[in-house]
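Page 37, top half.
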Amino acid sequence: MKSRLLYFVAYYFFWVLAFVVQKPVFMLYQWETSKSYGLADWLRVVWNGLSMDFSTAGYLSVPVLLLLLVSCFTGGGRWLNKTIRVLGVVLLTIVVMGFVADMFLYPFWGYRLDVTPLFYMETPKNAVASGTMAQNVACVACFVIEWLAYFFAFRFVHKKAYHIDGRSFLSAAPLLLLTGVLFVVIRGGVTVSVMNAGRAYFSKDMFLNHSAVNPIWNFFSSFAKEDNFASQYRFMDDAEAHRLMAEMSNPVTLPADTFVLKNKRPNIVVFILESFGSNICGAAGGAKGLTPNLDRMAAEGLFFSNFYANSYRTDRGLVAILSAYPGQPVTSLMKYPEKSQNVPTLPGVLKQNGYDLSFYYGGDEDFTNMRSYLLHAGFEKRVCDKNFSSDELSTKWGAYDHVVINRLIDDLKKPQQQPFCKVLLTLNSHEPFDVPFQKFADPYPNSVAYTDSCLGVFYDFLKASPCWDNTLFILLPDHAKPYPETMTNQEVARYQAPMIWTGGAVKGPMVVSQMGSQIDLARTLLAQLDIDGSDFVFSKNIFSEKSPKFAFYAYNDGLGFVTPEGASVFDCGGNVSLREDNPQLTVRGKAFLQCLMDDLAKR
């Protein structure tokens, strides 16, 4: 009897110890962030994460507990030893893969491991493109080292299984009792509240909270709730949420109070700029000297000075811009073609009103299901990596921005069906920031300066071209990026973004101070064109005085709600407010997210 109990206890605490050890390993890898913390902070990370570690170890130990129970009646011996050994090695491999992926992805994404990597692994080449060769090699080396270390520890523990041989009916009773105890541990106790990420939160510093979270638990927890949209983020009674949402919605027939275009059918060129937040745009009060061309366009056109991105990833940003559909905290509409094809699109509406559509992108259009979404949007003419020679595909992601922009310039030199709408998504200001340009030592600002130089070439071409007088040129980012690196992933400043309207079709320069966000482009632009935009239920007309003034954004398992009077930032996973200038802003942000998930469930 004793051998089975001792082995199970050793096996269970092997996993607990592995999770405890991994926390300082994770923090050491994030040394630039963690070096400022004292020993007490490191110990609190370990202590506050223990309950989640116990729970995760419980999940991993259930199969072994069941095997031990069976062996009480059938006998142990060789079959039991071999089965547990194989199971342990398989689980160990999965867990170490999770550990390493979590460590290497956190600096890029700012949150612990969840199901997001699985979405991007549909195109493996692009999934690893954010890392440099050195980082990818280090990732593999780290996996090998960690796997070997944990394997030898597991082998030491597993030696106890060799002593489990004959039947032991008496062992069944305590093992059954352990099953009940394990259920309580997995659940997180006997209270109404079950285990959740908030159990590990203990600090106002989100990095410390994130460090305490068990990445394996977080991964499988996010996997379990990935598709169950209607049950996610339930903060209040549905009737109250939809009442508040009605107050935040744009009236259906609300005209613009200000008309900024010279005519109602201009040609439209939209540049969606990878990771271009206000923090790197001089005109928006960000870093000086990085974006002289963007600053020039802001001065010569309409500059939206109080504008926000709605999310933190390109797939969410594209849908926010082109479908006025807000980003979600832990999923992406683009991941589900059956849903993304049920949302309206701004290009689709323009196509119905006579516009000829084209889309330009230097990368793989199959990444994150982009192609299915673009086809739904009406982009039958699409330029992607397959349209460039191998010499032009010089980056890990695809073609350089200047190559793609030159392709657009060449096309514009040819006769065009008018009016047209051409959308271009830039690429090179994304990790690993590989650009044929060297002006700044820091790779990210240097990549921004490179793309800005490409924007200047296109802008000068457009101004000199015959189509300038009747063209509206719109520039806005797909999302922003934390910069400088001390900026956190959830704070309001991380989502501030520049939007510029310029071109000969614009009446004149103006600073637009009314608050808006990416989802508001659709109703704002369509109102200027005198086209009905009522299908875009989340969008508002920025140029209408009667439109509600706010911006909503989603980050991983959290939300931000910004108004001219203040802001609220709420971490849903930890169930804690990170910023709350007014409690009503938190309530409204929660209502918005709840109604968004209701809408997503119905699409």
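Page 37, bottom half:
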Amino acid sequence: MDRKITIALAALFAVFHLAHAEPPEWSGNPDKEITIKTLPGMMRYDTPEIVVEPGAKVKITIENPDDLEHNFVLLDQDKDDKDGQKFGELSFQLGAKGIEMNWVPDSPRVLAKTGMIGLKASTEVYFIAPEKVGMYPYICTVPGHSLLMRGKMKVAKDNFIVRDVTWKLFDAKGKKISKLADFDGMEPIKTGKAKNNLISLQPANQNKLRNNYALIFEGKFTAPKTEVYEFLLNSDDGSRLAVNGEEFINNDGIHPPKTVSHKEELEKGEHTFRLGFFDGGGGAKLSLVAKTKFLGSIPFSADQNAKNPKKKTQAPILLTAANPGEAIVHRTFVGGAKPRGIGVGYPGGINLVWDADVLNLAFVYRGGFMDVGGHWNGRGSGSKIAGFDSENLSHGLPMQELESLDEPWEPFYDKTIKYERDKENPEKEITYTDRHPDYQFRGYQLDKKRFPTFMYDYKNLKVTDRFDPTEIDGAEALIRKIKVEGDAGENIWMRVLNHGSDEIENGWIKTAQKVWIKIEGVEPTTRTASGMKETIVPIKGGEEITVTYKYTKAIGGKVKK
């Protein structure tokens, strides 16, 4: 028989044998299904990276629309050959056995492989992912192909809260609709997977539907612990949300943007959701977010009417207390404070950031404490708060000598310097915040519950600043104790609130925000200076000032009056 025919038959037999190998028992229900295609004429896979969980049962379909034969070989890790290129070069040494071996060198490093995938053909490969996290290369081992035809499989814990989100798009075709039930019995005109697993109106926008359409989203989400979830659904027009097959929110009908919320305790583990939405004409808006004390805000949707959703619902890497009842203290740069911010997460879901650059409270917030995922993901953007309802109440230097109550407050000690980077303006000035000469930070002490007491000096005064969590009317609150020792002299004031109103009810100063305050131990003065409304208190020395901060409503509750 002609040698070329023999080689061709051998190759065809190898393809048939491997492509039709007996699949494992779990092949009909894998944990992860992935499709990888070859790019015609480019000698590349279309997917340079795939992600699977440790120990996951994986099914990969490799489609080959190219005019060349290829294969797929998944390799174990090798610190001296991270991309698999050295292994790919071994195929040159196979010689005449290469075709018989489908150009795959015999090696314990091979974790999974296909036979040769013919022109315009496809095949499937099944394997169980390694338990060890890390990057595993995959390549085409046909001689010369691995130089370009390769990728990496990332084995890592699934870091996404919301996943497997699909959509169905329905068109009423001019029929006037007023509720979601009007679409019952209709067939979707298109279906697809939600980009970045985020709900958006992108499918309707891409199909140029402006009214009389509906979208049905279905997906899964993971609760890392058992706790109460508050779902907030905003839509224009109607929408309905079901979780685990139970309707949580009915926001149906024709209406302008309207938010409806629902609170429910969900068990730790995986849950399903179904969200229906329709637009009957005019504007169209849709957003869904869940709030929890542990995770903070969980976005299920992209920006309203987003044409290109980019934000991913990636699970935060949360800092948690080492032991129940303890606080978490985290020193970091975080938005809303100067570079020397000190975050404190208290039991009960209330948190704060204390600013060591200005020696004062920067802001309070509730929900999740700190997401430190930015230190490892992306470009290492650092920490960010994981919660919500952040309130800046009196950020800036806490004390000042005022000759009169008309004198404006100077919250930061700003300086200017000149630099010569700008050739067109070599004398250009920049402003920066420096340490005020009247202040000295003395650090902080932790008690047995790791609650910090902050300490600093102001002129001849020694100040301690401590916070304790509590609950008032079912909502999160903080009790702040400020002790001042020494002789202050004349005209020293402390600013407690940099906004608000003169309205006081039962001792509570009502602000325009979600947090009200009460001041005890000294008599507060509310003033307006340079257009700023502030609450300040006199300091003589020897004071113990109690400031209570309370949220005006519990999460999902009504404003307390």
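Margin note: The longest strand covers residues 360-371.
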